[in-house]
From TrEMBL:
GO molecular function: monoatomic ion channel activity
Transmembrane segments: 769-787, 807-826, 833-851, 871-893, 946-970
UniProt keyword terms in alphabetical order: ANK repeat, Glycoprotein, Ion channel, Ion transport, Membrane, Repeat, Sensory transduction, Transmembrane, Transmembrane helix, Transport
Keyword Transmembrane helix: yes
Protein name: Ion transport domain-containing protein
Membrane topology, from the record: Multi-pass membrane protein
Matches recorded under SMART domains: ANK (SM00248)
Source species of the chain: Dendroctonus ponderosae (Mountain pine beetle)
Keyword Methyltransferase: no
Domain of life: Eukaryota
ANK repeat locations: 54-86, 87-119, 230-262, 301-333, 334-366, 401-433, 434-456, 470-502, 502-524
Amino acid sequence: MKVYKQWAKVFLNCKQPTMEEVLEVLSAAENGNLEMFQRLYIQDPSRLSIRDSRGRTTAHQAAARNRINILQFITQQGGDLNAQDNVGNTPLHVAVEAETVDAIEFLLATGAKSDILNDKKQAPIHLATELDKISVLQAMARYKGKVDIQQGGEHGRTALHIAAIYDHDACARILISDFGASPRKPCDNGYYPIHDAAKNASSKTMEVFLAWSESLGCTREEMISFYDAEGNVPLHSAVHGGDIKAVELCIRSGAKISTQQHDLSTPVHLACAQGAIEIVKIMFQMQPEEKKACLASCDVQKMTPLHCAAMFDRPDIVEYLISEGADCNSIDKERRSPLLLAALRGGWKTVHTLIRLGADINIKDINKRNVLHLVVMNGGQLEQFAEEESLLQLLNEKDLTGCSPLHYASREGHIKSLENLIRLGACINLKNNNNESPLHFAARYGRYNTVKQLLDSEKGNFIINESDGVGMTPLHIASQQGHTRVVQLLLNRGALLHRDHHGRNPLHLAAMNGYTQTIELLLSVHSHLLDQLDKDGNTALHLATMENRPNVIAQLLSMKCKLLYNQSEMSAIDYAIYYKYLEAALAMVTHEDRAEEIMAMKSPKNPCVSLALIASMPRVFEAVQDKCIIKANCKQDSKLFSIKYNFICLQHMTQSEEIDEKTGEKLVAKEKSPLPALNAMVAHGRVELLAHPLSQKYLQMKWNSYGKYFHLTNLLFYCIFLGSITCFSSQLMEHEKALNFSYLNLSHMSTEQKYAERKSEILNVQMNYSMYICAMVILVFIVVNGAREVAQMLQQKYVYFFNPINLVTWCLYGATVVMVLPIFGGEIYEIQFSFASMAVFLSWCNLLLLLQRFDQVGIYVVMFLEILQTLIKVLMVFSILIIAFGLAFYILLSRGDHLSFKTIPMALIRTFSMMLGEIDFLGSYVKPYYLSNKDENTFLPFPIPAFLILGIFMVLMPILLMNLLIGLAVGDIESVRRNAQLKRLAMQVVLHTELERKLPRRWLQRVDKSEVIEYPNECKSKKGIIDFILKKWFGSPFSEDSDIVMENSEDYVMNELAKTKNKLKEISQAIETQNQFLRLIVQKMEIRTEADDVDEGVSVKVSSGHSNKWTSPKIRKKIKSVLSFSHRTNSA
């Protein structure tokens, strides 16, 4: 009962307080009404921890209002003085924020924690410092033992860091003097408080820190020389903050303006980079003795302050530094002077200032580039420098790669710079180290207007056909990069069709890189380029194939290019097969007009294209098969709808007269195997090709032409042989008189005599003429077929013996011969009956194997054999269990006079029969156990282990193993059926091959067909009953409703891709038209932009070849089109 009351009280106290109760309690705490607060607490003690919407408790409210009486009561009742509100503030945080000193002192005195951080990572001491609460800090100082003054908040900043950031000097004094805070503790970022003070221009706080160091006997110079994590002294931080007073304070405190940080830069470097000229002047004025050292000091990159000012285009600081004695010709680590650095960074004002102040323009950087190189490279307005006569001598100077400023202007496409360089007298036929002129550069990057300006110059006609280091002219380069407009311009200006050092013309290079428009343009002007050869005998088609350019291949084939062989006697299709280029091979073998010509090509590498494709690229040959199936262009439900099957890709490999293309002489063709394509599919395991509709239709044509007749004839002869064996066996069981052993007096005979007497009566067989006739038929059949088997054995050699069917055949022939031969001697022997049973069994089983070749029934035979193979493999493994149980039963039952387990072989056989369900539990175990069978002497010598082993046997063998075998047999019947179909197809290929080897070739040519046309919707004529039976039971092995045709799941995807490509092509054409229209509008309205000063073409960085990511010509072409479009859009 007591426990019940306690739980009832708990549940009653768990109810949620109402809003009125919450406001009443918090109001009492806030107003300091102790009497009401006590009364409310007595009514419900849980009200002590009640919270408002901000998460504040009664302790928070009392601390905020400085209600000591409420805080005392809460403390007496065990209330939580460290509770945190929604933003993590404790009552001490709230008291600090409200500056309620009495509450702060009470909380610290009663043990409230002062190291709790709120959501802003602030302890109460941090909050008091940030809010500049002097009185609070003084009150907390009286309890400094309970305050961790070195505690870190956000980023590990202490209260002293916060005072330095906000320049609360009074707080800093209290923290140092009263709390004993040390300015030598860094934050997590490695900054000391004095660095934060310098960075935030907190000069008053800096003075506090410096005075503290002096009070400890430390000099100001030591304090002002503290290094942070980056190696900065406070002066660096002060310069970074940009506060002049902080800089002056640091310098007055002894900071040296020549002090270097980790990267060896001084505060002067930093001020020059930031453009703070006033700070630079103050530093030099306050420490004139350090000025010379600062001006000559270098950072890690060997840059002086003048370099920093020039790099960020600070002309006023540059002029001031030079006036103060800075060397304007000092060089950095890469041998760049301030002038070169300003030109490299595009600081044109600084460049003019330095030249005016006498900077040496002949200085070159580590790449031997002068100021004019850098000005042109970075798009400087050269007309601004035209007045500098000293620059004219730099017009034709070369850098480390041999490039002049004109080379860079041509490469970057700076039209104005190019025009000014030519006008000032720059030589346009200078060559770099690779023997390339500016025209080569302009052609490589597609600078159409640049090429035009160079050709319009005085010596333009002399450089148009100049070759570079590898023999390539500007026309070669423009064709190689696919810049069609540049190619058109060069051809119009009279560019000649030279060859490079590899013997390649511009068409070869355009074909290698896949630029179809360039190819079309070149051939429209010079059609004789189509079949020209390079030094290796390669045509444009060869080179396009080597680079896997399917669009170019299709284009060249459509333009009637010749299919030639190079010096390695390889054609284009040979290279596609050698490199396994799927797209290139598809483009050739599926071409509308030239596919047959390509498939008929022969080379030492690939004597037959079809066989090579089947072996190496089955997907390509599948496309060839698809192309050979042509559907009529009409509705599929129309009677006129037809499907044409062209077998040229499967037939053209037959024997024909070959002619040497070089000498024109006839070559002796080797004897070729029939059906080479289908045999190659079987040899290489190309199931998808063998199951293709074209392959099936081809085999069906062969079957209908002659195959079914020969196979039916063979079946007929075998049926005669089978009937003879069956008849002979039945006659063998016919006796002169019916066997009746009752007349024999066997009572006085022994068991052996009884057995011999009965066997003699069995051997008394009545022989007649029908037996002799059957024996003659059997022997003739065996002799003929035995000779055929011997021929196959000689042909196939040891492979012949790996076929189980051949072994079955020879066993059949051997058993049959032993069965029939003795009758010609007039005797009947006991062995004949044993071999007769074997002959009858094997002959009928062989009939089952022959039926594999026929539809309807053949598929089930193959399925049966497939399942049989699986079962044999499983039984071979689990025969271990049969042996284990058989031996166990032999030991346990053989001594109990059980005949079934008397010997080990009989025990194993009996165990196998028990596995099939014939356990005979009553007769073999129950009756012998109870000894109820008085007629027999059987008993169980070891009953307990016998029943135990029997129980295990019944679980493992009849239940588990038999269900496993059944599951393996029929579990995946569809897969078995599919594999059986394909295996039967492969078998048909082998059978037709063997048949065609024996048939006359002329007769085969007469019955063979090169194509078949079917009308699926045409009503078929009625056939007679014989034809119906033949079709129903022995029909074609290629059913029209067969489901083994593998659906090409990629057809739909390819069609959708083709549609998408067409749509994208239309969109790109529309965009190109709009761009042309916009350009015309811009030209008519004479609108000029900054982009007009840069010529069209590809980006230098993209096509420079430094990154493997963009080395593909196809990707470069896409990038070129995107950048060209962007440029045209911007210019519009």
